[in-house]
Recover the amino acids of this structure.
Protein backbone atom coordinates (compact mmCIF):
# COMPACT_ATOMS: atom_id res chain seq x y z
CA UNK A 1 0.00 0.00 0.00
CA UNK A 2 1.43 3.37 -0.97
CA UNK A 3 1.82 6.16 1.58
CA UNK A 4 0.35 9.55 0.59
CA UNK A 5 2.94 12.19 -0.19
CA UNK A 6 1.37 14.62 2.32
CA UNK A 7 1.83 12.08 5.11
CA UNK A 8 5.50 11.62 4.18
CA UNK A 9 6.05 15.40 4.23
CA UNK A 10 4.25 15.74 7.58
CA UNK A 11 6.32 12.95 9.10
CA UNK A 12 9.53 14.55 7.86
CA UNK A 13 8.52 17.93 9.28
CA UNK A 14 7.67 16.33 12.62
CA UNK A 15 11.09 14.65 12.78
CA UNK A 16 12.79 17.94 11.91
CA UNK A 17 10.92 19.79 14.67
CA UNK A 18 11.80 17.06 17.16
CA UNK A 19 15.47 17.46 16.28
CA UNK A 20 15.32 21.24 16.75
CA UNK A 21 13.12 21.12 19.87
CA UNK A 22 15.48 18.67 21.56
CA UNK A 23 18.73 20.30 20.48
CA UNK A 24 21.65 20.30 22.96
CA UNK A 25 21.64 24.11 23.06
CA UNK A 26 18.08 24.23 24.38
CA UNK A 27 18.90 21.50 26.91
CA UNK A 28 21.91 23.47 28.18
CA UNK A 29 19.81 26.61 28.51
CA UNK A 30 17.04 24.77 30.36
CA UNK A 31 19.44 23.05 32.74
CA UNK A 32 21.28 26.34 33.33
CA UNK A 33 18.05 28.10 34.26
CA UNK A 34 17.07 25.34 36.68
CA UNK A 35 20.55 25.43 38.21
CA UNK A 36 19.99 29.11 38.96
CA UNK A 37 16.60 28.29 40.48
CA UNK A 38 18.21 25.65 42.70
CA UNK A 39 20.80 28.13 43.95
CA UNK A 40 18.09 30.73 44.59
CA UNK A 41 16.05 28.17 46.54
CA UNK A 42 19.00 27.40 48.81
CA UNK A 43 19.60 31.13 49.37
CA UNK A 44 15.94 31.79 50.18
CA UNK A 45 15.76 28.85 52.58
CA UNK A 46 18.83 30.11 54.44
CA UNK A 47 17.34 33.62 54.55
CA UNK A 48 14.03 32.23 55.83
CA UNK A 49 15.82 30.30 58.56
CA UNK A 50 17.74 33.41 59.64
CA UNK A 51 14.57 35.51 59.63
CA UNK A 52 12.69 32.83 61.55
CA UNK A 53 15.31 32.70 64.27
CA UNK A 54 15.25 36.49 64.58
CA UNK A 55 11.50 36.46 65.35
CA UNK A 56 11.66 33.59 67.80
CA UNK A 57 10.78 30.55 65.65
CA UNK A 58 12.58 27.40 66.71
CA UNK A 59 13.92 24.71 64.38
CA UNK A 60 10.79 22.58 64.79
CA UNK A 61 8.52 25.43 63.61
CA UNK A 62 10.78 26.09 60.63
CA UNK A 63 10.86 22.40 59.71
CA UNK A 64 7.06 22.29 59.91
CA UNK A 65 6.84 25.33 57.63
CA UNK A 66 9.21 23.76 55.08
CA UNK A 67 7.28 20.48 55.18
CA UNK A 68 3.94 22.23 54.81
CA UNK A 69 5.15 24.21 51.79
CA UNK A 70 6.64 21.13 50.14
CA UNK A 71 3.50 19.04 50.64
CA UNK A 72 1.17 21.83 49.49
CA UNK A 73 3.16 22.17 46.26
CA UNK A 74 2.52 18.55 45.27
CA UNK A 75 -1.12 19.05 44.31
CA UNK A 76 -0.72 22.13 42.07
CA UNK A 77 2.39 20.59 40.52
CA UNK A 78 0.33 17.63 39.28
CA UNK A 79 -1.74 19.95 37.09
CA UNK A 80 1.44 21.46 35.64
CA UNK A 81 2.85 18.00 34.93
CA UNK A 82 -0.31 16.90 33.13
CA UNK A 83 -0.30 20.02 30.96
CA UNK A 84 3.42 19.65 30.29
CA UNK A 85 2.96 16.06 29.07
CA UNK A 86 0.24 17.23 26.70
CA UNK A 87 2.52 19.93 25.24
CA UNK A 88 5.66 17.81 24.82
CA UNK A 89 4.67 16.78 21.30
CA UNK A 90 4.26 20.42 20.26
CA UNK A 91 7.29 22.11 21.83
CA UNK A 92 9.70 19.42 23.02
CA UNK A 93 11.03 18.81 26.52
CA UNK A 94 13.46 21.78 26.93
CA UNK A 95 10.93 24.35 25.71
CA UNK A 96 8.20 22.96 27.97
CA UNK A 97 10.57 22.95 30.95
CA UNK A 98 11.51 26.57 30.33
CA UNK A 99 8.13 28.03 29.49
CA UNK A 100 5.56 25.91 31.37
CA UNK A 101 7.72 24.60 34.20
CA UNK A 102 9.44 27.92 34.94
CA UNK A 103 7.02 30.81 34.55
CA UNK A 104 3.77 31.61 32.81
CA UNK A 105 0.58 29.64 32.30
CA UNK A 106 -0.14 26.95 29.76
CA UNK A 107 -3.08 28.91 28.34
CA UNK A 108 -1.04 32.09 27.83
CA UNK A 109 2.00 30.32 26.40
CA UNK A 110 -0.07 28.19 24.03
CA UNK A 111 -2.06 31.23 22.90
CA UNK A 112 1.16 33.12 22.15
CA UNK A 113 2.54 30.18 20.15
CA UNK A 114 -0.77 29.75 18.30
CA UNK A 115 -0.89 33.43 17.30
CA UNK A 116 2.71 33.30 16.12
CA UNK A 117 2.05 30.16 14.08
CA UNK A 118 -1.13 31.52 12.50
CA UNK A 119 0.68 34.73 11.53
CA UNK A 120 2.93 32.54 9.37
CA UNK A 121 -0.02 30.70 7.86
CA UNK A 122 0.49 27.50 9.87
CA UNK A 123 -1.53 25.60 12.43
CA UNK A 124 0.10 24.95 15.79
CA UNK A 125 1.16 21.30 15.60
CA UNK A 126 -0.71 20.86 12.31
CA UNK A 127 -0.29 21.72 8.65
CA UNK A 128 2.70 23.92 7.92
CA UNK A 129 4.20 23.54 11.40
CA UNK A 130 7.83 23.55 10.26
CA UNK A 131 11.01 24.07 12.32
CA UNK A 132 10.97 27.72 11.28
CA UNK A 133 7.43 28.15 12.58
CA UNK A 134 8.41 26.37 15.79
CA UNK A 135 11.30 28.81 16.28
CA UNK A 136 9.02 31.82 15.83
CA UNK A 137 6.42 30.31 18.18
CA UNK A 138 9.10 29.64 20.80
CA UNK A 139 10.33 33.24 20.53
CA UNK A 140 6.76 34.49 21.02
CA UNK A 141 6.34 32.27 24.07
CA UNK A 142 9.62 33.50 25.51
CA UNK A 143 8.75 37.17 25.02
CA UNK A 144 5.31 36.60 26.53
CA UNK A 145 6.71 34.88 29.61
CA UNK A 146 9.61 37.33 29.87
CA UNK A 147 7.15 40.21 30.15
CA UNK A 148 5.79 38.61 33.33
CA UNK A 149 9.27 38.64 34.85
CA UNK A 150 9.96 42.25 33.80
CA UNK A 151 6.60 43.39 35.19
CA UNK A 152 7.35 41.62 38.47
CA UNK A 153 10.79 43.23 38.64
CA UNK A 154 9.43 46.72 38.04
CA UNK A 155 6.17 46.59 39.98
CA UNK A 156 7.26 44.71 43.11
CA UNK A 157 9.27 47.62 44.60
CA UNK A 158 6.39 50.01 43.86
CA UNK A 159 3.85 47.70 45.47
CA UNK A 160 6.14 47.22 48.46
CA UNK A 161 6.33 50.98 49.06
CA UNK A 162 2.56 51.25 48.68
CA UNK A 163 2.06 48.37 51.09
CA UNK A 164 4.36 49.97 53.66
CA UNK A 165 2.46 53.25 53.53
CA UNK A 166 -0.88 51.44 53.75
CA UNK A 167 0.34 49.48 56.78
CA UNK A 168 1.23 52.75 58.50
CA UNK A 169 -2.22 54.20 57.81
CA UNK A 170 -4.31 51.07 58.45
CA UNK A 171 -2.61 47.87 59.66
CA UNK A 172 -5.94 46.05 59.59
CA UNK A 173 -6.46 46.82 55.90
CA UNK A 174 -2.96 45.62 55.08
CA UNK A 175 -3.68 42.37 56.85
CA UNK A 176 -6.93 41.85 54.92
CA UNK A 177 -5.93 42.93 51.40
CA UNK A 178 -3.38 40.15 50.62
CA UNK A 179 -5.78 37.46 51.80
CA UNK A 180 -8.68 39.00 49.89
CA UNK A 181 -6.59 39.29 46.72
CA UNK A 182 -5.52 35.65 46.94
CA UNK A 183 -9.07 34.52 47.61
CA UNK A 184 -10.36 36.60 44.69
CA UNK A 185 -7.75 35.21 42.30
CA UNK A 186 -8.57 31.58 43.12
CA UNK A 187 -12.31 32.31 43.10
CA UNK A 188 -12.02 33.82 39.61
CA UNK A 189 -10.16 30.77 38.30
CA UNK A 190 -12.76 28.49 39.85
CA UNK A 191 -15.78 30.41 38.59
CA UNK A 192 -14.37 30.42 35.05
CA UNK A 193 -14.36 26.61 35.07
CA UNK A 194 -17.93 26.15 36.28
CA UNK A 195 -19.82 26.92 33.03
CA UNK A 196 -17.59 24.73 30.85
CA UNK A 197 -19.22 21.42 31.71
CA UNK A 198 -21.31 19.68 34.32
CA UNK A 199 -18.39 17.41 35.14
CA UNK A 200 -16.19 20.43 35.77
CA UNK A 201 -18.73 21.94 38.15
CA UNK A 202 -19.16 18.62 39.94
CA UNK A 203 -15.38 18.28 40.28
CA UNK A 204 -15.15 21.74 41.84
CA UNK A 205 -17.90 20.83 44.32
CA UNK A 206 -16.22 17.53 45.23
CA UNK A 207 -12.81 19.14 45.74
CA UNK A 208 -14.38 21.90 47.87
CA UNK A 209 -16.22 19.40 50.06
CA UNK A 210 -13.12 17.25 50.51
CA UNK A 211 -10.99 20.27 51.39
CA UNK A 212 -13.55 21.58 53.87
CA UNK A 213 -13.95 18.14 55.45
CA UNK A 214 -10.20 17.71 55.84
CA UNK A 215 -9.80 21.14 57.45
CA UNK A 216 -12.65 20.45 59.88
CA UNK A 217 -11.15 17.05 60.71
CA UNK A 218 -7.71 18.59 61.21
CA UNK A 219 -9.13 21.14 63.65
CA UNK A 220 -11.30 18.59 65.47
CA UNK A 221 -8.51 16.04 65.82
CA UNK A 222 -5.83 18.69 66.33
CA UNK A 223 -3.89 17.04 63.50
CA UNK A 224 -1.52 19.58 61.99
CA UNK A 225 -0.20 17.06 59.47
CA UNK A 226 -3.70 16.63 58.01
CA UNK A 227 -3.93 20.36 57.33
CA UNK A 228 -0.59 20.18 55.51
CA UNK A 229 -1.80 17.33 53.31
CA UNK A 230 -5.30 18.74 52.73
CA UNK A 231 -4.59 20.53 49.45
CA UNK A 232 -2.79 17.60 47.86
CA UNK A 233 -5.42 15.11 49.00
CA UNK A 234 -8.33 17.23 47.73
CA UNK A 235 -6.72 17.63 44.32
CA UNK A 236 -5.98 13.90 44.02
CA UNK A 237 -9.52 12.99 45.07
CA UNK A 238 -11.08 15.47 42.62
CA UNK A 239 -8.86 14.28 39.76
CA UNK A 240 -9.77 10.67 40.50
CA UNK A 241 -13.46 11.60 40.63
CA UNK A 242 -13.27 13.41 37.29
CA UNK A 243 -11.41 10.51 35.65
CA UNK A 244 -13.84 7.87 36.93
CA UNK A 245 -16.93 9.85 35.94
CA UNK A 246 -15.53 10.73 32.51
CA UNK A 247 -14.48 7.12 31.88
CA UNK A 248 -17.95 5.95 32.82
CA UNK A 249 -19.36 8.29 30.18
CA UNK A 250 -21.38 10.34 32.61
CA UNK A 251 -19.54 13.67 32.11
Amino acid sequence: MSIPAAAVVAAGASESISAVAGSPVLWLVALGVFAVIFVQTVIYMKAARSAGESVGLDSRDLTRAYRSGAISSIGPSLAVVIVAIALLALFGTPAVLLRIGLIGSAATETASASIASSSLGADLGGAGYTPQVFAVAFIAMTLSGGAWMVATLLLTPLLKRGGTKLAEVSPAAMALIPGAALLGAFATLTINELPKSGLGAATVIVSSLVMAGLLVAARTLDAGWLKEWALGISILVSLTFAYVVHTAGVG
The chain has a mean pLDDT of 79. Residues 1-169 form one domain. The first helix runs from residue 5 to 21. The two ends are 40 Å apart (CA to CA).
